[in-house]
Amino acid sequence: MRIATTIDEVREQIAQWKAAGRTVGLVPTMGYLHEGHQSLMDAARQACDAVVVSVFVNPIQFGPNEDFDNYPRDLERDAELCEAHGVDLVFHPSADEMYPAGFNTYVTADALAETLCGASRPGHFRGVCTVVTKLFNIVQPDLAFFGQKDAQQLAIVKGMVRDLNLPVRVVGCPIVREDDGLAKSSRNTYLSAAERQAALVLSRAVAAGQRAVEAGERDAHALKRLMLDILESEPLARVDYLEVVDGLTMQPVERIGSAALVALAVYIGSTRLIDNFIFEEPPCC
Ligand code: AMP
Fold first, then answer.
1. Ligand 1 atom closest to the CA of 150, numbered from 1
2. 10 Å Cβ neighbour count for 80?
3. Nearest-CA residue for atom 10 of ligand 1
4. What's the pTM?
5. Which is the closest atom of ligand 1 to the Cα of 149?
6. How many angstroms separate the Cα of 193 from the Cα of each of 120, 124, 159, 182, 273?
7. What is the pLDDT of residues 168-224, one digit of tens each?
8. Which of 29, 80, 126, 170 has a CA-to-CA distance to 134 between 20 and 30 Å?
9. Quick one: 24 exposed, middle or buried, by C-beta within 10 A (0-12, 13-18, 19+)?
């Protein structure tokens, strides 16, 4: 496995693979890898001849008061993990390599980026769309793998690929959870023991919401009330948002229809965690 820090190194390797007719899979990450990332790598390994994992804490997707400086980083451990999962190339650029002086061009998404995390984190998806476009241009993957954990990001990236005719297929992968239900996240490392316990309120709310919808609840307001009651019962939790949106447009809905996304962001202490579930109406008989 190779670790590249420059765009030129990556381009050179990709050119060799393309010349040999090998398909390329890309897994974009911010590192501090866990089983959620591993599931993406494994999916890429299954589907592609060569697998590239980018490890880059992208400064432009963080707001001024967010956790860019504190975000956990451990390239050595990440590289070992990548190697163990059959990754061929880790791309670990510096911020200057990606955004040299004079950098002046950004990619933005419109309506899809205005709700949920887009509303709570102004500029976040502009940073995401810009870095993902750059990674697509550098790596030129046939397939790119993203987690359903960041459901709005996945929808936005799919929309961007469609709208800008980017020659890549985006593959969404299911949320990987801890045994007790908490969605795996690099940010879970911020949690104290008490907060780690309190954080279970997210997956408890998600599971209860899922059960309610599966049992026939279609009223978004009632569903949110049920889930909020659970979230608000946890003293260490502060709800940033809980929303029921159309799974394609990311716009709030009143009735839960064929493809709804129920998404939430909750502060546990000062750590902001997200979770979600998608409800797809089973085909009518
Ligand atoms: P991050 O490093 O947090 O930017 O995540 C990189 C990729 O891994 C994104 O596509 C995430 O959606 C995905 N991911 C993060 N956590 C999980 C998880 N628990 N299950 C599945 N995918 C995940």
1. 12
2. 13
3. 146
4. 0.98
5. 12
6. 27, 29, 39, 13, 15
7. 999 999 999 999 999 999 999 999 999 999 999 999 999 999 999 999 999 999 999
8. 80
9. buried
